[in-house]
């Protein structure tokens, strides 16, 4: 298969900084589009992958799965896009298309494993996939999204992961005008969860460890802010929430949040991957028919639904634009929860 070389930014090992490197992209097939990447959001998953927090990172690793850009080439069988169109790519660049999940627009739960935008198995070239910290990407057009023309393009990029990851559980658990939703952690995912839950008409509360974020949270649409380290404040919301979207990336005590769920309420973990410590107490779950659940990104159709909703409701991410060369410093700031509220890389800087 013919390939071409593009510049990218990635890392060679768990401890190395990200730096400029060259990677190969395939020439388009009949069903592919080629996209010139204009902006790429910086997700905490990029950092987890670069530093092998979850195990399984294959190096060199080129992160980035919040991609927006312009179509530069279109395969002969592609009718959905033409050269010059805006396009978005999220966390999924391929899936089997025929398993029960794919048949139900749940590519994120593809029973044969979806192909991640980075660190996935590249079905075309062998080896592993490289993400959006690069000049161009080639993607099967079924996995490419249409981007609303009325929104600021750079601020749309984070919708492709932070947006859909919070939208999917809000929709699955039927959040609407009568819902009481809480969001744990005000970062990239958290700030989108607030905006989207508000957009769906819910009453929204933020749980944060960081008192300095209260004003921002209210401006983003939160009706209430609870400082999660303050016991009296935590007690004041016992039994209140229908749905909690928990975006905390590291192990943390989920028990105090479960007590803030209403009868039949659900605490949805989207951040931390791994065993819970301290152990989860089933008493409030059993006595209140409460659930602790998880959710991963969202399907392609659902991502399009979210983008269209954002276009209609003028919802975008709050971003801080950085140059590609500033990514290592951005990761350090992300580790300190010092992001307001998503870094987006101007890919022209590469
Ligand atoms: P982020 O921008 O770094 O935000 C995380 C927020 O969590 C922080 O701003 C902070 O908020 C809070 N936090 C951080 N460390 C904490 C700790 N040790 N204890 C308690 N709270 C803490 O990260 P993100 O990009 O939103 O991603 C969040 C997590 O979701 C990551 O683990 C990421 O890998 C994962 N993720 C999952 C999916 C999925 O499909 N399920 C998709 C994308 C990302 P406060 O300062 O307000 O406390
Ligand atoms: Zn992500």
TrEMBL record:
One of its GO terms (molecular function) is zinc ion binding. Keywords: Metal-binding, Oxidoreductase, Zinc. Its cofactor is Zn(2+). Pfam families: ADH_N, ADH_zinc_N. Its EC number is 1.-.-.-. It is an enzyme of class 1 (oxidoreductase). Belongs to the zinc-containing alcohol dehydrogenase family. This is NAD(P)-dependent alcohol dehydrogenase. The lineage of its organism: Bacteria, Pseudomonadati, Bacteroidota, Flavobacteriia, Flavobacteriales.
């Amino acid at each position: 298969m013919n390939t071409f070389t593009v510049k990218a930014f990635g890392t060679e090992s768990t401890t190395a900084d990200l730096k400029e490197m060259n990677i190969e992209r395939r020439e388009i097939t009949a069903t592919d589009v080629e996209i010139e990447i204009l902006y790429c959001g910086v997700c905490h998953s990029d950092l987890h992958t670069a530093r092998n927090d979850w195990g399984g990172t294959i190096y060199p690793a080129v992160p980035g799965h919040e991609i927006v850009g312009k179509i530069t080439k279109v395969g002969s069988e592609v009718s959905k896009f033409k050269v010059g169109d805006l396009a978005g790519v999220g966390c999924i660049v391929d899936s089997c298309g025929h398993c029960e999940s794919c048949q139900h627009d749940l590519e994120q739960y593809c029973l044969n494993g979806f192909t991640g935008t980075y660190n996935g198995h590249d079905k075309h070239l062998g080896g592993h996939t490289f993400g959006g910290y690069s000049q161009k990407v080639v993607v099967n057009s079924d996995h490419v999204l249409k981007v609303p023309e009325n929104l600021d393009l750079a601020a749309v990029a984070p919708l492709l992961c932070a947006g859909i990851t919070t939208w999917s559980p809000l929709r699955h658990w039927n959040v609407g005008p009568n819902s009481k939703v809480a969001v744990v952690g005000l970062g990239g995912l958290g700030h989108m969860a607030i905006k989207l839950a508000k957009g769906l008409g819910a009453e929204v509360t933020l749980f944060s460890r960081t008192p300095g974020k209260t004003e921002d949270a209210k401006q983003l649409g939160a009706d209430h802010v609870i400082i999660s380290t303050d016991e009296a404040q935590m007690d004041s919301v016992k039994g209140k929430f229908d749905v909690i979207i928990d975006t905390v990336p590291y192990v943390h005590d989920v028990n105090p949040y479960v007590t803030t769920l209403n009868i039949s309420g659900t605490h949805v973990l989207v951040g931390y991957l791994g065993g819970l410590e301290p152990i989860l107490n089933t008493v409030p779950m059993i006595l209140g028919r409460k659930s602790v659940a998880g959710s991963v990104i969202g399907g392609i159709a659902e991502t399009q639904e979210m983008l269209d909703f954002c276009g209609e409701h003028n919802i975008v991410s709050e971003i801080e634009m950085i140059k590609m060369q500033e990514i290592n410093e951005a990761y350090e700031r992300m580790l300190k929860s010092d992001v307001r509220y998503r870094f987006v890389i101007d890919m022209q800087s590469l």
